[in-house]
Description:
5-stranded mixed beta barrel; alpha/beta; 8 strands
Amino acid sequence: MKKTIEFLKKKTGDFVPDIAISYSDIPNFIKSKVEGHKGRLVFAEIEGKKVVMMQGRNHFYEGYSMADVTYPVKVMKKLGVKTLILTNAAGAVNESFRPADLMIITDHINFMGTNPLIGENDDEFGERFPDMSEIYKKDLVNITEKCADKLFIQKGVYAATTGPSYETPAEIFMLRAMGADAVGMSTVPEAIIANWCGMKVLGISCISNTASGVSDTKLSHEDVIETTNRAKDRFKSLLLEILKEI
């Protein structure tokens, strides 16, 4: 961790904007193998806010450990980041949701079979048994709803599975019965670590497809990319408005 922070501070100075650093150049960072993920850490100033952004994240299903997947969140905490905005592509479990909808995450279900906090606790970041009753802060949810204004936006519970296979119709039926509105393969580990570290968390999903059993459509990564591209401009506009308010 020390080597990573020293490298980034040397590169960015006092959080100098408009710098993009490849993950492969950052000590202890790993590069995502998922198509469409550039794998860069970008420092910028947007709407008067100093921002560090990840262009592409690492996933548990790629064979990385939970420690690897959540390492960037700890780095951001060390760099002074106070609010973490997590975005993802997710399948619609709620039958009223449609592809290209945006959904504010109000809570999550960890169905990944593990937890990034398993192991020896690092007291420097957080306590052994952190409270998880409000991971996704209500004030940030309210700000996002206000910023959406006339942009139709959903709210709901996000369920995380390991992937990389899409869920079966029976699994989607089970998740719906458990209260999930959308399902994906990321976000929850990072949200848990950020909350443990004392960071405020906002989560927003782009509904990229209807989940198995919701429709007869076969699922493919190509369709997910196509749908997220359709929603990209609305998503970007919403994030810019949120940055003005937080």
